[in-house]
Specification:
Elements (H helix, E strand, L loop, with lengths): L5 H11 L5 E2 L3 H7 L3 E6 L11 H12 L4 E5 L21 H21 L5 E5 L1 H4 L4 H7 L6 H5 L2 H4 L8 H4 L1 H16 L1 E7 L3 H15 L4 E5 L12 E2 L2 E2 L9 H9 L3 H11 L4 H13 L5 H31 L10 H10 L2 E5 L4 E2 H9 L3 H9 L3 E3 L2 E2 L6 E2 L9 E6 L3 E8 L3
Parallel strand pairs: 2-3, 2-5, 3-4, 5-6, 9-15
Antiparallel strand pairs: 1-6, 7-8, 10-13, 11-12, 11-14, 14-15
Helix pairs in contact: 1-2, 4-15, 10-11, 12-15, 13-14, 13-15, 15-16
Length: 427
């Protein structure tokens, strides 16, 4: 159980990690006085959470690690309505079957993070269990009577939508989320709700309903929404959002997102998204300051995040694959089949059916869209290497016996372009 100073210590830790934005008055002392039940909600409006959702997830993780029982609430009920917070237009409404499928996938993503982070005492719930069965008349009498229209209109999530219009469906969302707070208080004794800063209006509505309907004090805590130091929206890559689901963002691309973190952001992300302690983070920051070109902090961040979401085995494979791409001295003979197979999915690749050997011009055409004349010019310039051997103008075919395990060729064009060629027997 937290001691009398634990609340302030916990808030200091959250502030150091960049996970503290808004809070109700007295929440530090409240968390320090006893073990408090905390919850955070995640609506399954998409089939996966994205890395922006990891901010409130990590807030919940650190509260759990500090000894507070936590509930991750998947919004199978609220997702049928749609949260207007942070949106300029109403989202399309999903059916129950799609929401349930999304919820199941998100359950597993949340469990993976909690287990990997050592956050004990975290349970999962779904507000579909009570919201889908609620009677409208009962809800309006028991919940709606506690909120004036003026109070609801004053919330940022509503104010930002008034000019373009907001449906009654989305207008009522904050009441449903507030009701979740009361319901979780009845079922599990929850008295603290956390979320992203865009949820502050919904969270404080819940605090108000807890006071009016449940007759108890409650608290709210938010983490900031994250942007990069250059002002870009966090969590976007060239391919769009970076998802936690491996089928939507592969472990390799997930790893690449983190290893490509800007120098100005890497220390902040180590604090915010990992469970590394202060000494470890500060050591990595000091190392990075001395030799930023080594990107040791980015590698540590990418390893930690990929392990958390996808496990040690996947992290090891994608880390080796990444090293192969950027290390021109990497020995192809030492590359495992698992790494070659990952590279074949993630970087330019070619599959050449030939018993006679690898046609270099075919590979350059398939993998790099080089015409045969352009390919011959590259060979003449000595700009092509296959399995670490620089080719000459006449080396248009590489013998099969030079393939790694009779199957793989690592092809480099110039200083940056890399491809994998897989040799398969002719039909």
């Amino acid at each position: 159980m937290p001691d009398a100073t634990a609340g302030s210590t916990l808030l200091d830790e959250l502030a150091w990690r960049g996970l503290l934005h808004q809070q109700t008055e007295g929440v530090g002392a409240y968390l320090g006085a006893a073990s408090r039940s905390v919850y955070c909600g995640f609506d399954p409006t998409a089939p996966s959470l994205h890395i922006g959702n990891l901010v409130p997830v990590m807030l919940l993780v650190h509260l759990a690690r500090a000894g507070h029982p936590c509930i991750a609430l998947v919004g199978g009920g609220t997702a049928m309505i749609g949260d207007p917070s942070g949106r300029s237009a109403e989202r399309p409404l999903l059916g129950a079957a799609a929401i349930d499928e999304h919820a199941d996938r998100i359950y597993h993503q949340l469990l993976a993070v909690f287990r990997a982070s050592g956050a004990k005492g975290v349970s999962l719930a779904n507000n579909a269990d009570w919201l889908r069965e609620i009677r409208m008349i009962d809800f309006m009498r028991d919940v709606g009577k506690h909120f004036s229209v003026n109070y609801m209109l004053a919330k940022d999530s509503v104010q930002s939508r008034l000019e373009g219009g907001i449906s009654y469906t989305e207008f009522s969302y904050m009441l449903l989320q507030a009701y979740d707070f009361v319901e979780l208080h009845k079922r599990h004794g929850v008295t603290v709700q956390v979320g992203g800063s865009d949820q502050w209006g919904n969270l404080t509505a819940g605090v108000e309903l807890m006071r009016r309907a449940a007759g108890t004090d409650a608290h709210a805590l938010t983490a900031p929404l994250v942007t990069t130091s250059s002002g870009k929206k966090f969590g976007k890559s060239e391919g769009g959002a970076v998802w936690l689901d491996a089928a939507m963002t592969s472990p390799y691309k997930f790893y690449q997102f983190w290893i490509n973190t800007e120098d100005a952001d890497v220390g902040r992300y180590l604090r915010m998204f990992t469970c590394m302690d202060r000494a470890e983070v500060e050591s990595l920051e000091a190392e990075h300051a001395v030799a930023p070109h080594e990107r040791s902090a980015q590698r540590a961040l990418a390893r930690a995040m990929t392990t958390m979401l996808h496990g040690d085995a996947a992290m090891s494979v994608v880390a080796d694959a990444s090293r192969v791409v950027f290390d021109k001295k990497a020995d192809p003979a030492g590359i495992t089949d698992a790494v070659f197979e990952t590279l074949a999915r993630e970087i330019p690749s070619a599959r050449v059916a030939s018993d006679a050997g690898l046609s270099v011009l075919d590979v350059l055409e398939q993998a790099f869209a080089q015409s045969r004349s352009a390919g011959k010019k590259l060979l003449l310039q000595g700009a092509v290497t296959v399995n670490g051997i620089k080719l000459g103008a006449d080396d248009v075919v590489v013998p099969t016996d030079q393939a790694v395990r009779g199957r793989w060729f690592l092809v480099r064009k110039g200083g940056r372009d890399v491809a994998v060629a897989e040799l398969s027997p002719s039909a």
